[in-house]
UniProtKB/TrEMBL annotation:
Keyword Magnesium in annotation: no
Transmembrane regions listed in the UniProt entry: 6-29
UniProt feature coiled coil, ranges: 36-70
A Pfam family it matches: DUF948
Keyword set, alphabetical order: Coiled coil, Membrane, Transmembrane, Transmembrane helix
Top-level taxon: Bacteria
Protein name: DUF948 domain-containing protein
Record PANTHER family: UPF0478 PROTEIN YTXG (PTHR40070)
């Protein structure tokens, strides 16, 4: 074999190697193309999902804003209620103070009356007679209401 034959065989082997290499490259490129198509498809699905979610998120945000506005309005509508409760609290405080003063005055009068009774002065003042009469009336009314409730309750039980 001479140099020309070796050169020819070398070129032929290089050409065959190049053809095999090109075949593998073509196969690799087709696989890469298939992977890219799959990735592109997946990206398209992700894009569509994100667009769908974007609309839902926007609706959800609007709904949350509507609920927040509704709650704000309802809280503002309760302001008069809390003002009324505050007024009732102040009124109760004033009534309690007035009752405390009246109780002090009544206690003072009772002590004074008791002291005068101990001294031998047995005259019953008219206000004390009225207080005694009023307490008897109040107790009678209370007993009547209590009896009426008990009768209503027992009648209701019998019907069941």
């Amino acid at each position: 074999m001479d140099n020309n034959d070796i050169m020819t065989w070398s070129i032929a082997i290089a050409a065959v190697a190049f053809v095999v290499l090109c075949g593998f490259l073509i196969s690799l490129l087709r696989t890469a193309q298939s992977s890219l198509v799959t990735a592109q498809s997946a990206m398209q699905e992700v894009k569509e999902t994100v667009e769908g979610l974007q609309g839902e998120v926007k609706k959800l945000a609007e709904s949350v804003n509507d609920v927040a506005e509704d709650i704000r309005g309802k809280l503002q509508s309760t302001d008069p209620l809390f003002d009324a409760v505050q007024d009732v609290g102040m009124l109760l405080s004033e009534v309690t103070g007035t009752a405390r003063e009246a109780t002090k005055g009544l206690a003072h009068s009772i002590r004074k009356q008791a002291a005068s009774i101990e001294e031998g002065d047995v005259v019953t003042p008219s206000w004390l007679r009225w207080a005694k009469l009023g307490s008897r009336i109040a107790l009678s009314i209370h007993k009547g209401w209590k009896q009426q409730r008990e009768q209503s309750y027992s009648l209701g039980k019998e019907e069941i």
